[in-house]
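[Discussion] Sanity-checking designs against the backbone

I'm trying to build intuition for which residues belong where. Below is a structure token string of 716 positions. I'd appreciate it if someone posts a full sequence so I can compare it with mine line by line.
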């Protein structure tokens, strides 16, 4: 009894002293299946999870089964000193790290020094990014999450302690050609500028399972409305209602899909800072305009930033609940205060959502330092400027989503900032960078951080570049042209207009597949777009190749040992390998198993590096053996609720297979009340050698939007 009291006093009563918390005193508690938590020191009441309001999906975590604590607890170290928390986690030789937020240059994070700091895009992958998520995944199959809304310094296998049990070998640079400027380090160390913190460890045993547990612990991934997975056009910033209507009509006439149009700053009477009120010269009757567009199957999304103009009607009411510093001469609402939330979102609800607006593009909540409030700013809630900056994107996502939830309408939008806890929020990150290659690396890294990212299309110098960018964006979370400055349209380059139409129509045809994969993100935690490193057996495969082959003689072993940052998984079955301007061929690393060409069904390889020359018309896409891809007919708009849609179900390869097809009304939150269904698609070979496909019967009382089903067996 006395010993227990002593532990409590040591942990909570001596925070002003400098001391190390021993492994014996850190009592890790399994709070959900495969998820362990410990609190050290005095954690701050406001953190990433409280900001997001994320609630664990404990049932889904339970369904994943049990696993053991994945680290040696005796090698985890915490030290409280000078009002800061020093963390140390073990790192084995050969272990690779992924995550630490939305990075655009690198996939491998071992050997990096980072400050996880909310910011505008930078080109150094130094931790200053749109989603500085303090979560990392190991190739050994576990994850670590630090629940703090502070700027966290990370030394991901870079620092070497003098008392290390696994010190690097001493080498002489004068005589040893293997001398390295960065010696081997056996730890991930982090510095949190707070007197305590909550720590979480997620078990595997595979990296994918660790990622899934992290996502499910944060409520599971977002489930967009069906229309959100269609095609969107963001129009010129000064378009009027007539301009928008004309452009939508052109899409219809030319046969290009369109599900929602984004209005840029000119829809507001004033912007930078914002009034959040319609400009009456460009949009004299906003409600009639929005409803007319809805009647044509096109929804309206509104750009905004959160900063309140002194000329806004809500300014006098919200001014007492704003920060000490302005942004673009606009007041910064303290959105942690309920009264501020009520005033702010009340305006949005009254003038936007209540008349049928379907979503938002929330800009400028990331950085640069010269744009946002400084770290010396104060807020009426008492939160620091640092904490507010780390979570402001999550606050606007969460509170706007809740506003749509009151109307029982799902939304899907764009945002410039996210963080841990934002997994379930229906927003896709974007930024001002325009490197196609970086966009793909960002898409890969998004799967490690519980975020979504779009490689949007804006403008191009040539028709080739235009088409290559289009091909990538149609295999991403949001298929979008952002023409706010360029006024570009899908048919801007006539020489590739038909190919653009074909790929955008393919995006629509694949909607049953995309929608199901997002449902898996929500219910099972599997990222819909992710690195090949999360594929089953990828780690095991790597070890075998390295053990059994001379690297100089085995290109596959070399390929899987290096960063793979230009190809990614799209859903359960698809491997996408984008082409970039000027490329006529490229290498593709095929993970374990047989892979087939998406377009022809031809076998392309098995666990090897291949070279493809697809021509300009196609983006290379490959399907796992046994892959089942449900597709619908070409439609210009997403199906309406309860609309029956015929399916063509494709099966690839020689493996019999089953695929769970998800269904609900596509627009409301009724799925949270059990109004959804999973139907099983089965492909099997008959005794006579022919293939047969079946779909299970619909459940009584459950949504059923499936019409006639035909099967196409993609066997050359």
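Best answer:
Here's mine. Compare freely.
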């Amino acid at each position: 009894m006395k010993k227990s009291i002593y532990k409590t006093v040591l942990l909570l009563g001596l925070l002003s002293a400098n001391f190390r918390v021993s492994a014996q005193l850190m009592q890790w508690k399994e709070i959900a299946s495969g998820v362990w938590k410990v609190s050290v020191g005095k954690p701050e009441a406001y953190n990433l999870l409280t900001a997001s309001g994320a609630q664990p999906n404990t049932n889904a975590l339970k369904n994943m089964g049990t696993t053991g604590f994945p680290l040696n607890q005796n090698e985890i170290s915490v030290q409280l000193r000078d009002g800061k928390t020093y963390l140390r986690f073990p790192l084995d030789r050969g272990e690779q790290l992924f995550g630490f937020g939305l990075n655009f240059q690198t996939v491998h994070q071992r050997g990096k020094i980072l400050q996880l700091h909310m910011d505008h895009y930078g080109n150094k992958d130094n931790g200053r990014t749109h989603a500085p998520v303090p979560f990392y995944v190991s190739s050994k199959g576990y994850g670590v999450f630090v629940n703090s809304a502070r700027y966290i310094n990370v030394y991901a296998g870079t620092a070497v302690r003098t008392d290390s049990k696994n010190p690097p070998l001493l080498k002489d640079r004068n005589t040893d050609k293997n001398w390295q400027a960065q010696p081997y380090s056996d730890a991930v160390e982090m510095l949190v500028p707070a007197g305590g913190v909550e720590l979480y460890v997620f078990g595997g045993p595979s990296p994918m399972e660790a990622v899934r547990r992290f996502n499910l612990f944060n409520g599971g991934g977002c489930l967009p409305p069906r229309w959100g997975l269609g095609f969107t056009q963001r129009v010129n910033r000064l378009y009027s209602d007539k301009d928008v209507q004309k452009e939508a009509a052109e899409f219809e006439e030319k046969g290009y899909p369109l599900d929602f149009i984004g209005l840029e700053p000119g829809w507001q009477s004033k912007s930078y800072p914002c009034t959040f009120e319609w400009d009456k010269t460009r949009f004299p009757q906003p409600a009639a305009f929005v409803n007319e567009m809805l009647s044509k199957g096109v929804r309206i999304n509104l750009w905004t930033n959160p900063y309140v103009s002194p000329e806004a009607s809500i300014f006098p009411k919200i001014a007492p609940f704003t920060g000490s510093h302005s942004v673009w001469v606009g007041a910064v609402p303290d959105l942690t205060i309920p009264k501020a939330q009520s005033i702010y979102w009340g305006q949005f609800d009254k003038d936007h959502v209540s008349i049928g607006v379907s979503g938002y593009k929330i800009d400028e909540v990331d950085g640069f330092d010269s744009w946002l409030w400084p770290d010396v700013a104060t807020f009426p809630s008492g939160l620091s400027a640092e904490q507010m900056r780390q979570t402001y994107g999550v606050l606007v996502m969460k509170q706007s989503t809740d506003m749509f939830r009151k109307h029982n309408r799902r939304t899907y939008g764009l945002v410039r900032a996210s963080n841990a806890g934002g997994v379930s929020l229906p927003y896709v990150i974007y930024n001002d960078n325009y490197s196609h290659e970086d966009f793909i690396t960002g898409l890969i890294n998004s799967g490690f951080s519980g975020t979504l990212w779009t490689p949007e299309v804006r403008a191009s110098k040539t028709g080739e570049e235009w088409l290559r960018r289009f091909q990538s964006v149609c295999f991403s979370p949001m298929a979008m042209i952002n023409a706010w400055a360029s006024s570009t349209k899908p048919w801007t380059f006539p020489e590739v207009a038909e190919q653009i139409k074909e790929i955008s129509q393919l995006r629509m045809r694949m909607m049953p597949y995309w929608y199901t994969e997002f449902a898996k993100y929500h219910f099972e935690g599997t990222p819909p777009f992710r690195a090949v490193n999360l594929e089953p057996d990828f780690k095991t495969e790597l070890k075998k190749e390295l053990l059994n082959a001379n690297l100089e003689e085995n290109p596959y072993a070399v390929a899987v040992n290096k960063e793979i940052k230009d190809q990614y998984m799209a859903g359960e079955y698809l491997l996408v390998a984008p082409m970039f301007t000027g490329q006529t061929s490229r290498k593709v690393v095929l993970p374990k198993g047989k892979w087939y060409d998406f377009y022809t069904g031809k076998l392309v390889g098995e666990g090897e590096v291949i070279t493809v020359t697809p021509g300009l018309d196609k983006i290379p896409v490959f399907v796992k053996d046994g892959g089942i891809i449900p597709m619908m007919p070409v439609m210009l708009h997403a199906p309406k609720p309860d609309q029956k849609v015929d399916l063509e179900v494709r099966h690839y390869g020689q493996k019999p297979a089953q695929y769970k097809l998800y269904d609900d009304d596509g627009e409301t939150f009724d799925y949270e009340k059990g109004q959804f269904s999973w139907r099983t698609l089965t492909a099997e070979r008959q005794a006579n050698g022919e293939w047969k496909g079946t779909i299970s019967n619909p459940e009584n009382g459950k949504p059923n939007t499936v019409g006639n089903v035909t099967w196409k067996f993609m066997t050359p």
